[in-house]
Design brief:
Length: 161
């Protein structure tokens, strides 16, 4: 299975190297690669993926029942851990009043203490503009004070014209 994965990666790397090299040398840009080449690469990648799946099927057929059960148990444990982490993240986000979208984006810790700290910091940042408000003193009012010295000087200089 490692051989087919490395073959697929090698094919993709070769395609990237070819387009990068031609771009560096002033030749074709990556987006100028002929459609035939792109199509051939896609076909090769599909074939490599198909071969990888066949190899996995053959390997699975040769495994003992206990190996298959061990793999399924490991996969179930990974799913369980992911579900627990998601539940913990959403519970802490709800506790601190953080939306689901912000929780997915900003709460990326793996343990409760880290997630709680991240949620507290995010909640503080969200509240800071609310505390200060958007207040602009004398917004919309006209100055009612008398003329300043500079204004009086300007009037006296230009009044005679």
């Amino acid at each position: 299975m490692a051989d087919t994965t490395s073959t697929t990666e090698a094919t993709e790397k070769a395609a990237d190297d070819t387009s990068t090299a031609s771009a560096e040398t002033g030749g074709e840009r990556p987006q100028d690669v002929p459609p035939e080449v792109k199509q051939a690469l896609r076909k090769a990648n599909k074939e490599a993926e198909s071969l990888r799946l066949k190899l996995k099927e053959y390997e699975d057929r040769d495994k003992t029942e206990s190996e298959k059960l061990a793999e399924r148990a490991a996969a179930a444990e990974r799913e369980r851990d992911a579900a627990r982490a998601a539940e913990l993240r959403l519970r802490i986000a709800a506790k601190h009043g953080i939306s689901d979208e912000h929780a997915d984006l900003f709460l990326n810790g793996t343990d409760e203490a880290t997630l709680t700290e991240q949620a507290e910091q995010l909640a503080k940042l969200a509240e800071s503009p609310k505390k200060q408000g958007n207040y602009v003193p004398r917004e919309g009012t006209s100055p009612t004070s008398g003329s300043s010295e500079a204004q009086q000087l300007a009037r006296s200089l230009f009044a005679g014209d």
